[in-house]
């Protein structure tokens, strides 16, 4: 048999039917859904008198428009509340398990899947959300879909798909202190650009990736879409199996043994072909930070903001000028030392317990700078509980930060947590698009370590000076 | 609904990497229907904070009235998977976007909503960028764009997506017809592969 990549193996085992001239019908093992991209899909089901084919393979949560203030307070936004009420009704009508605001398992869709053991190697996983690639950290083929396709999966548990090419991203060498998984992925995106992976699936590999924890791998896979790839994954290994073992939805007993035997067949065969390859030396990386209005506009913390004068392509040049104007930054200068107003630690990229521990390690015994507002938003209620058990909440609160309930929060600013026009944030989220964190707001993307260090000093900071 | 030929003036928005947060900001995503999303289209590029139009924005120009084709920079529609982006474009009268490339999810979403993502070669794109408000023809059946100069260039499109648009095939209906194959596939899956419990 021809050597295959992990992506090809997962693809081959999920093709339900293939007809000439049409995309393949691909079976979906796990469908995650949330309140923002599902209502119109449920409406389609109602209009056509259809049921959800596999409610048992469908899991719903509320995360995008949910408040992060105390769950005992009434929800102030009537439109947001209507959306959550509709979600409750939809899940009730169609028999879908819902982790709503009253449960202890609610959280950002990409945080709770792995946390509950729902996310498993070799699965096909979809969600009406572009950061579904996060689940690829487990060796699953996981990608974001639009609302029409959410309806397709509800009704048929399948999608019409054409195969993607594999793009090998090799990361080798040891990370220096103060440099983290977030810096790896920001460096990758800065290198290939935000369209660099269009039409491909990233397979992250190499000694650095192997040495990362599951949570760190999730941070990397999460931002595959920011490199233009619809999915990104890491072949499963012992780190993966250890993480899954014993979680609520993980296979048990004989099922576990069978699953493990299956999972061990997944890694890419020797000699399999990749459409594209990139190698990155992790030992040369510094903490990364973005300066512009897309995630590819990133620089090492010691680097300078690029000068449009040195860009030859006319549209690229005008885009850079436009970005610097929006961000009100000067070319040639360092970003380090730039005054900030807000620090956000959260989002499906960096809101897991290890992210909060990293931020807390910097905050401990220090204070949030008086002109900075710092928001720490755990990715799930389980993460919040764990953080409280470890006393991290106290560290944040004593430092003067706000420690909230779980949700997407200021990652996309739908729930009232947002920047004011003109404000600068250092954010551990994944998008720095114009207005993403609030109309007129300006975002510098960075790691939890960099975010925490910047909260303390009040300016964009090289965390290595505080370690 | 069958997709017919388009002949329209072009509005030119020469920006690369226009993300779906610009096409429609997140605050317009709280709706539980598809209605009224046109109001959010390019909201923060189109209107000032006080709701007055920004006169320089291309879709606010008097010439933009009735425009059905938008020409943009590379990698249009990157970012979030929100289908609200093509919904908002379609509700504002846009039927095709011409660029040098599109983000994957946006392209798929657009095709499911009768919005045609048209990829043209760099030289044709350059001509379009220099010809705001010129008239362009798009023939989906022939997969061609007739440029303002009269030159005709071909564009690629997935053959199944084209068939769905041209013949008005309903994708979900097509999938539902394959129910026996889906049931057979499920039947041969055993143990934990076919369940989450
Ligand atoms: S945290 Fe941000 S990127 Fe992640 S799912 Fe929520 S809104 Fe999307």
Largest sheet of chain A: 5 strands, parallel
The low-confidence runs of chain A, each spanning 5 or more residues with pLDDT under 50, are none
Tell me the β content of chain B: 15-25%
Name the bound molecules.
Answer: iron/sulfur cluster
Strand order, sheet with most strands of chain B: 4-3-2-1-5-6-7
Q: Oligomer, anyone?
A: heterodimer
SS-based structural class of chain A?
Answer: alpha/beta
Give a quick summary of the entry.
Chain A is α/β, with parallel strands linked by helices and 467 residues long.
Walk me through the structure.
The complex is a heterodimer of chains A (467) and B (197). With 467 residues, chain A is an alpha/beta fold. Chain A contains 15 helices and 19 strands. Chain A has helices at residues 6-12, 39-48, 78-94, 109-115, 147-156, 181-192, 207-211, 214-222, 238-244, 253-263, 314-327, 353-363, 381-389, 392-399, 448-457; strands spanning 15-17, 24-27, 30-34, 58-61, 97-99, 124-127, 141-144, 158-161, 165-172, 200-205, 231-233, 276-281, 288-290, 298-300, 342-345, 373-376, 402-403, 424-427, 442-445. Chain A has a 5-stranded parallel beta sheet with strand order 5-4-3-6-7. In chain A, strands 17-16-15-18-19 form a 5-stranded parallel beta sheet. In chain A, a hairpin with a 7-residue loop joins strand 13 and strand 14 (298-300). In chain A, helix 12 runs parallel beside helix 15 (448-457). Chain B has 197 residues and is an alpha/beta fold. In chain B, strand 5 and strand 6 form a beta hairpin. Chain B has a 7-stranded mixed beta sheet. The mean pLDDT of chain B is 95. Chain B is globular and about 60 Å long. Chains A and B meet through helix 2, helix 3, helix 5, helix 10 and helix 11 of A and helix 4, helix 6, helix 7 and helix 8 of B. The structure holds iron/sulfur cluster (SF4). Residues 63-64, 108, 110, 129, 131, 347-348, 408, 411-412, 429-430 of chain A line the site of iron/sulfur cluster (SF4).
């Amino acid at each position: 048999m021809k050597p295959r990549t992990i992506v090809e193996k997962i693809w081959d085992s999920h093709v339900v039917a293939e007809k000439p001239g049409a995309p393949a019908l691909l079976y979906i093992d796990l469908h995650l859904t949330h309140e923002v991209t599902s209502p119109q899909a449920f409406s389609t089901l109602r209009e056509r008198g259809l049921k959800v084919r596999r409610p048992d393979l469908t899991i719903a949560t509320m995360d995008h428009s949910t408040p992060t203030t105390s769950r005992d307070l009434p929800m102030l936004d009537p439109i947001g509340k209507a959306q959550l009420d509709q979600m409750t009704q939809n899940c009730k009508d169609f028999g879908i398990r819902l982790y709503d605001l009253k449960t202890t398992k609610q959280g950002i869709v990409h945080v709770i899947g792995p946390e509950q053991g729902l996310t498993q190697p070799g699965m096909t996983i979809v969600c009406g959300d572009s950061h579904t690639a996060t689940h690829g950290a487990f060796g699953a083929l996981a990608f974001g879909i639009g609302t029409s396709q959410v309806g397709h999966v509800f009704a048929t548990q399948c999608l019409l798909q054409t195969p993607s090419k594999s793009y090998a991203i090799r990361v080798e060498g040891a990370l220096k202190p103060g440099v983290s998984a977030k810096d790896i992925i920001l460096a990758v995106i800065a290198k290939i650009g935000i369209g660099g992976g269009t039409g491909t699936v990233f397979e992250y590999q190499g000694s650095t990736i192997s040495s990362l924890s599951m949570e760190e791998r999730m941070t990397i896979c999460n931002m595959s879409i920011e490199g233009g790839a619809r999915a990104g994954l890491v072949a499963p290994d012992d780190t993966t199996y250890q993480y899954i073992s014993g979680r609520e939805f993980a296979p048990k007993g004989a099922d576990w043994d069978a699953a493990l035997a299956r999972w061990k067949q997944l890694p890419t065969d020797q000699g399999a072909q990749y459409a594209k390859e990139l190698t990155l030396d992790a030992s040369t990386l510094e903490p990364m930070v973005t300066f512009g209005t897309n995630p590819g506009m990133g620089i090492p913390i010691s680097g300078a903001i690029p000068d449009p004068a040195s860009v030859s392509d006319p549209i690229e040049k005008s885009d850079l000028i436009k970005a610097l104007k929006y961000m009100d930054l000067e070319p040639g200068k360092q970003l380090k030392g730039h005054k900030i107003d807000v620090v956000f630690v959260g989002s499906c990229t960096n809101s897991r317990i290890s992210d909060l521990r990293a931020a807390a390690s910097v905050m401990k015994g220090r204070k949030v700078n008086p002109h900075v507002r710092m928001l720490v938003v755990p990715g799930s209620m389980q993460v919040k509980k764990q953080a409280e058990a470890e006393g991290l909440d106290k560290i944040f609160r004593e430092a003067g930060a706000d420690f909230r309930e779980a949700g997407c929060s200021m990652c996309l600013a739908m729930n009232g947590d947002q920047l004011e026009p003109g404000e600068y944030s250092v954010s551990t989220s994944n998008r720095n698009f114009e207005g993403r964190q609030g109309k007129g707001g300006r975002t510098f993307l960075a790691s939890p370590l960099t975010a925490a260090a910047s909260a303390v000093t009040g300016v964009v900071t090289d965390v290595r000076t505080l370690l | 609904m069958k997709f017919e030929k388009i002949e329209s003036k072009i509005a030119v928005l020469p920006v690369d990497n226009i993300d779906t947060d610009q096409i429609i900001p997140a605050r317009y995503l709280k709706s539980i229907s598809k209605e009224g999303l046109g109001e959010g289209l390019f909201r923060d590029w189109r209107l000032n904070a006080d709701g007055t139009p920004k006169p320089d924005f291309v879709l606010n120009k008097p010439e933009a009235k009735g425009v059905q084709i938008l020409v943009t920079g590379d990698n249009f529609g990157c970012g979030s998977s929100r289908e609200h982006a093509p919904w908002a474009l379609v509700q504002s009268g846009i039927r095709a976007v011409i660029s040098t490339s599109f983000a994957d999810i946006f392209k798929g979403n657009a095709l499911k909503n009768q919005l045609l993502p048209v990829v043209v070669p760099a030289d044709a794109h350059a001509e379009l960028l220099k010809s705001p408000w010129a008239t362009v023809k798009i023939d989906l059946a022939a997969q061609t764009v007739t440029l303002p100069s009269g030159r005709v260039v071909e564009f690629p499109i997935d053959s199944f997506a084209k068939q769905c648009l041209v013949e008005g095939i309903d994708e979900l209906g097509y999938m539902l017809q394959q129910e026996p194959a889906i049931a057979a596939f499920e039947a041969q899956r055993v143990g934990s592969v076919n369940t989450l419990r």
